[in-house]
Specification:
heterodimer; A: mainly alpha; 10 helices; B: alpha+beta; elongated
């Protein structure tokens, strides 16, 4: 009995998730290492066994070689994993939003129980919802993988990703969901509080807007319009990947941005904890404008170049 | 580039090693002896690659195994089955056809590069 060899085999067995025969596998490795040690060194001591163990490989890698055909989710189903999770999370978020807005709790399949929430509970609920949805999809795909037949899962045509012939990136469902969620959340804030920029939200019932009422309404509408334009343009990419559509999208955003730069009212920025909010906001706005202008030029040059 | 070649070799060896095992196991052998046998023929195979292949072939009924506990330490001996011989025959035929095809294409390529 060589303790280092037994420790090594124990470590391998920890990773060796085979249905049967793990004992035989370990016995065979034990026998191999001992014979190799004997042939190589002429005798078998713990130190020499240790040297042979080093050449056999790391326990996790050794075990992994026996697990080639054991899959949790087939690689062929990987795109379903993200796609289904995206759809599920979208529905889940929508229902959670309803629970939050209407102050109701609901029992629903497959989300089980969605409680009535305040704003912070709602924001904390979303990441948990995502993890739950991902887990649920993994369980379904696990059973599909284990059945090992040609079960054809539904794939709505509306979301089919077209291959690009003009060098444009394929749109991603997750990103579209992200934009829509951001838009919905900000729209809710605007409807409820008349603003989307706040200094403080310590008291969710009475958040403190960053600007006065006129400026708040003005900038909120402009930024919400830009976000809506971005979301609509991105959604259109699923139907038609076109440089022209992208150009129109950034042109509209650029057009809206000039109203931000040329606001008709005087905007007083508060000082928060000594931070110059006006300067910070201008820097962000400048970076955003440069980014949009760059996208505009990139699309324009591509179209002209073609 | 070296990594790519190494990966390519691993991919190519996957099928090749199975044929090699089916050929070697015409006589009863255990894992360590098989590695030595291949080394005598100029082919090096890692032990942690060989054993999983042996297990897979056994699972598919192409080889059989039995433990010999008469010596100092137990050894698991393998030998080919009738199904294994049949599969080996087909695999060798496929390998031969692929080899011929490769030679043909290389010959055509050499003519093209000369002209």
């Amino acid at each position: 009995m060589y303790q280092n060899l037994e420790d090594y085999l124990n470590e391998i067995s920890h990773y060796l998730a085979v249905k049967e025969g793990s004992g035989e596998i370990l016995s065979e490795i034990r026998s191999h290492i001992l014979e190799k040690t004997e042939e190589k060194f002429g005798s078998v001591t713990e130190e020499e066994v240790g040297k042979v163990i080093l050449t056999y490989g790391l326990p996790r890698q050794v075990a992994a070689k026996y697990l080639d055909d054991v899959e949790i989710v087939s690689p062929a189903l990987k795109r379903y994993l993200f796609f289904y999770t995206g759809i599920l999370f979208f529905c889940h978020s929508a229902m959670a939003s309803l629970a939050y807005l209407l102050k109701i709790s609901m029992l629903s399949f497959p989300f089980l129980y969605i409680p009535s929430m305040d704003v912070w509970q709602f924001l904390a609920y979303l990441p948990m919802a995502f993890v739950y949805d991902l887990g649920l999809v993994v369980i379904v795909l696990y059973f599909v993988t284990q059945r090992n037949n040609e079960t054809r899962l539904p794939w709505p045509k509306l979301f089919s990703i077209r291959t690009s012939q003009n060098g444009l990136k394929k749109p991603k469902v997750a990103f579209l969901i992200f934009i829509l969620l951001a838009f919905t959340t900000l729209l809710y804030f605007f409807i409820r509080y008349g603003a989307i920029f706040f200094v403080s939200m310590n008291d969710p019932a009475h958040p403190v807007p960053l600007f006065g009422p006129d400026a708040s309404t003005y900038f909120s509408i402009l930024f919400l319009s830009m976000l809506a334009c971005e979301a609509a343009g991105y959604a259109l990419r699923f139907i038609n990947l076109s440089r022209w559509l992208d150009l129109i999208r950034v042109s509209v955003i650029l057009f809206l941005l000039q109203f931000v730069w040329n606001a008709p009212m005087k905007v007083d920025f508060p000082k928060i904890h000594g931070v110059d909010v006006q300067f910070t906001a201008m820097i962000f706005l400048l970076i955003f404008t440069i980014h949009i202008a760059f996208r505009f030029l990139k699309n324009l040059i591509s179209i002209i170049h073609k | 580039m070296e990594i790519d070649v190494a990966n390519l070799e691993i991919e190519m060896n996957r099928g090749f090693l199975q044929i090699l095992v089916l050929l070697a196991l015409e006589q009863k052998m255990y894992g360590y002896k098989m590695i030595k046998y291949y080394e005598q023929h100029g082919y090096t195979v890692e032990e942690n690659t060989l054993y999983p292949i042996l297990r897979r072939l056994e699972k598919n009924g192409l080889i059989k195994s039995e433990w010999d506990v008469s010596g100092d330490r137990p050894k698991k001996f393998y030998h080919i089955t009738a199904l294994g011989r049949l599969v080996r025959k087909k695999a060798l035929a496929i390998w031969g056809e692929q080899n011929d095809m490769l030679k043909n294409i290389m010959e055509v390529n050499s003519h093209v590069s000369k002209s």
